[in-house]
Every structure is written in structure tokens, then in C-alpha cells.
Amino acid sequence: MALAAATADAWGISAPSFLSAYVLIAVAIGVGSRRARRALADPGATGPVSDLTTRPHDVAHLAGGSELAVWSALCALHVRGRITATDGSVQAIGRMDADADPLERAVHATATTGAGRRRLLFHRSVQTVLSATEERLVAAGFLLSEDRRRRIRRVGLWMLAVALVGLGRVLAEISQARPVGPLLAALAAVTVVALAQLTLAPRRSRSGDRALAALRVEHRALAPEHAPDLRAHGPTGAALGIGLFGTGALATAAPGFARAVDPRDARRRRTGATGLAVGGGGDGG
Q1: Same domain, 100 and 133
Q2: Among residues 269, 278, 255, 280, which one has the least CA distance to residue 78?
Q3: How many CB atoms lie under 10 A from the CB of residue 103?
Q4: What are the boundaries of the region Disordered (predicted)?
Q5: I want to staple 201 with a disulfide (CB 3.0 to 4.6 A). Which of 4, 149, 157, 278 is the partner?
């Protein structure tokens, strides 16, 4: 009787049967949670894609966040002849028109007495404009609000529940001195997925991803491999090129200005490191 109790299957289910069922359940929950996250990441755009091109710095913010938006503003100011750069610092030149883009005005005003490129991002007037840009893109359905991103992350609780069931079974098997290798591997995979879903959420909506993809096709002439002439495209086109294809477009079209604005990146290029690129969207989907 004691021997039968000692050899009884944990939870009344044999280890192979539990492992098969556990893997099937984990896969089903994984597929379901992925679909739920994708649905939450697609609230639907309320504004047409064409509206984005009227605000090229919004495109940069959508593609790479605040830092890339500041880069696009610097590029536009360079084409306008309203800013110079030396050894990582920028200096405003002349005066901006009253109807100039708000971000360009804020960057120009911040650089009136000279400012480090990396410090521009944290100046109050620049931050105010960038916050307004973020709100505009969220309202248009191209970026996800923090509330929606929290909802996306909470979907990871489904996989976390599966992980906890697996952990309970592992402990039950260990208590009976039984091997748990295959189950432990399955539990590790489920745990990794659960942690990833609980911590990662896309920044852009799926509408935002589609908008960027469409604009990159439409404005392919601004890509770095085509060596675009920034002045020929004008400030708006130049800024749009930065927004769509990253600062590599600036490094290709205006290498002197790019080196002056970010000399450390120029040194990385000379040593073979990865160059300036599009800022990550942090999709994490």
C-alpha cells in the first residue's frame, strides 16, 4: 500500500500525459495571447497618412521617438541655414519666421547661445513641443497610449498562469524524486514568453507601422542609398528623409554637418562600428 502511494502519479496524471497536455495548452494560450496583443495594438488610425507628411518631424517622432524628431529638426534648420554645428554643439543663426515649425523654433531658440546636441532633447521648450507631438500621434491612432500599452502587457498574465501551473507540477514531481527535465524545459520556455509579454509592449500601433511602411515606399528617393540632395528637397523633404530613413540619410547627404553634430559617431564609423540609424520603435509585439 505504501509502495503504491509512493509510485502514484502526481495529481493523478502521468508525467508524459501531463507534459503533452501542458505543451498543447501553452501553445494555445500563446497563440491566443499573441492575437489579443495584436488586436490591442491596432486601435485604428483616425487621421490619413497624408497628414503625417505635412509635419515631417511627426514622422520622425513616430519612427524613432523624441531623439530622431530633434535630429529631423536639426536637419531642416541646417537646410534653412539657421544653424551651424561644431564638435557636438549647435549654434543658432539669424531669426526664425513666425510661422516656422514649433519644434524647429524651440530647437533654434535653445541653441541661441549654443547648446550640446544631446542636451537639446531635455530643454523644457523642446520637451513641451515633443509632448504635444506625442499626444497628436496618439490621438491620430499612430502611437499607442500608455493605458493601451499597459493593457497589452497585462495579456502576459495568461502565460504567467500557465507558468505557475507548470511550476506546481515540477515541484510535485521533485517531491516524489522523479525526473523533470522535459517539463522543466517547457516551463522555461513558457516563463520566458510570459516575462517578455509582461514587460514589452509596442510603442507604435499597427496603423503607425503601416503608415511608415507606405511612406518609405512613396519617398524612396530620400533613402541614403540614393544619396539625396537635401537642399534640392528643401527643409521639409530633408526632415522627412531623416524621419523615414534615420540619421544615416543625413550622414550620407551632409556628412560634414553630421560629423560636426555628432563627432563621436563619426569616430565609430571610422573604426567600423554601426553608423547612425533609424531610432527603434520599440515595437516589442
Answers
A1: yes
A2: 255
A3: 30
A4: 262-285
A5: 149
